[in-house]
Amino acid sequence: MGIEARERRQPWILLAPALTSVTLLLFVPLAFIVVYSFWLRTATGADQAGFYLDNWQEALGDPFYRDILLSTLRIAAITTIVCAVMGYPAAYFIARSRGNKAILLLMLMLPFWISYIIRTMSWINILGVSGALNWLLQATGITGEPVQMLYNETTVILGLVHFLLPFMILNVYVALEGIDISLEDAACSLGSTRWQSFLEVTLPLSLPGLAAGGLLCFVLSAGTYITPLVLGGPRDAMFANLVFEAIITQLNWPLGSALSLMLLAILGGLVLIYNHFLGMGQLMKGLG
Amino acid sequence: MGWFLIRGWALLVYIFMFLPVAVVVLLSFNASQFGSFPMTGFSVRWFIELAGNDAILRAFRTSLLLGSLTALVSTTLGVLASLALIRYRVPGSNLISTVLIAPILVPEVVLAVALLLFLNALSINKSFLLLLMGHVIFTMPFVILVVQARLVGIRRDYEEAAISLGAHPVQAFFQITLPLLAPAVFAGMLFAFTISFDDITGTLFWKPGGVETVPTQIFAMLRNSISPEINALGTVMIFLTVGLPLLGMAVARRMALQRGS
Fold first, then answer.
1. Residue A19: inside a domain, yes or no?
2. Residue B103: its chain A contacts at CB < 8 A?
3. Domain count, chain A
């Protein structure tokens, strides 16, 4: 075999294990649940193979599922907006700081590494009936009785923002770092104010980073079921909770498949739209 | 004036990120038996109770084993794939990259459901093996992203110089490329370990009954109420997950410096 042929074959040998794994552990299973979603859960508990539309009719038609889907999208949208509003100035501060940027970034990465479940439950220590805030309110005499501030939609959003904010800041920071700072100076020297030069030069140039951060925040918050279980009340279930219920609690796997695919279609659709307009490059920059 | 506001805002954001975590650490040293304010005194009793809690120790062992195996497998797969994508001109490399990154573009819940149902159909039930496969598939994209970013910076000239001086390609790989690659491999393993160690979304779907990892154990304990023991466990986790990567970064920097001199 010639050297050229070997050169051509080698990368495929290197890629084979990873590609095989992704195919067998992701793409084939996804195809499988597409088929599974048309099966039927029978009263005896066995799954009946075939082509039934029942699960899809239930998943798409039942107002219960539709309401939870809408409130999931609403929660994800609010979380994303709050992350953007909180995160953009912070990212701008890090990018334009004359201090030690590496330390500032590292400080941001630290909570990123801390376990998601611990960061989520840490809010119980702050907002719970016997938490820090209630203790403070009572110690200062503002309230006599402990106030229940937990277990509602607001605390779910709070937990999600706390979890996702570093994703937003990191993506915006990467975009801001890529902007030549002299552009802003040029705008100023041509007569615009700092604020104008920010609005007309820096902000538009950083939009791809903002969009990448926004996509991550939206997709990750719309797919969560742990945060509502820890910080939400019984009425704050999100769509992924329905999937978990169907699969793990009710063992209705065909219905769970249909619900999963619905979530995939909506969130995957967003990723595809993003990819079409902005490409994956920006997103990968922020992740890697 | 504007900069002053931005700085103040950034400071508030940092406080928002750190305050709840700081409270967890603070409360874990609280002598009070309810795990809440006010602090009644400094005590390490909750850490001692933690060390005697079999369920938690078991969860720790499971998480460590799972994280280590995940790091090993997913870094091996990821490094090989990254080498192919960076070092060779592969037709359709953009598509291949997207395919390899796909596991993090699919919501984790959906990945969890698909893998669970498919492997169940192949009679692979909820088990440690299923957990391992799941963790490998969603950590590998992160490894590939990290390793690729580092690999771009390593010039191929060194390897080619070695080969032109008479080294066998395999020899050149092990003696030249791999040592240069070591920080990237190390970073990838650390990343994979941390993500696996922290995962709960997929793990709750895949874990067999009775097996708990640290996050699922904490989750199960939260069902009752928040106890000082959870805060103590949280503190241990915080020091582990923050300390390990910091240590890793220090080692990687030391390795890079040594080679530079």
1. no
2. 22, 25-26
3. 1
Smallest Cα distance from A254 to chain B, Å: 10
Residue with tokens 């990892």: B213
**pLDDT tens-digit map of B177-210:** 788 888 888 888 988 998 999 999 999 999 998 8
Chain B residues 185-204 with CB within 8 Å of chain A? 194, 197-198, 200-201, 204
Residue A142: which CATH number?
1.10.3720.10
For residue B217, list chain A residues with Cβ-Cβ distance below 8 A: none
Per-residue pLDDT at B118: 95
How crowded is the C-beta side of B249, counted as CA atoms within 13 Å?
Answer: 10
Grade residue B88 by pLDDT with cuts at 50, 70 and 90.
Answer: confident
Partner-chain contact A18 B85, CB within 8 Å: no
Domain hosting A246: range is 56-287
Pairing of strands A40-41, A47-48: antiparallel
B113–chain A Cβ distance below 8 A for any pair:
yes
Q: Which of A47-51, A261-265, B16-20: highest mean pLDDT?
A: A261-265
Residue B238 in contact with partner chain A when CB distance is under 8 A: yes
Cα atoms in the 13 Å half-sphere on the side-chain side of B34 = 11
User: Hey, are the CB atoms on A243 and B109 less than 8 Å from each other?
Assistant: yes
Cα(A6)–Cα(B208) distance, integer angstroms: 45
Q: What percent of chain B has pLDDT over 70?
A: 95
Percent of chain B clearing pLDDT 90 (strictly above) = 43
Whether A154 is in a domain gets the answer yes
CA end-to-end distance (rounded Å), chain A? 38
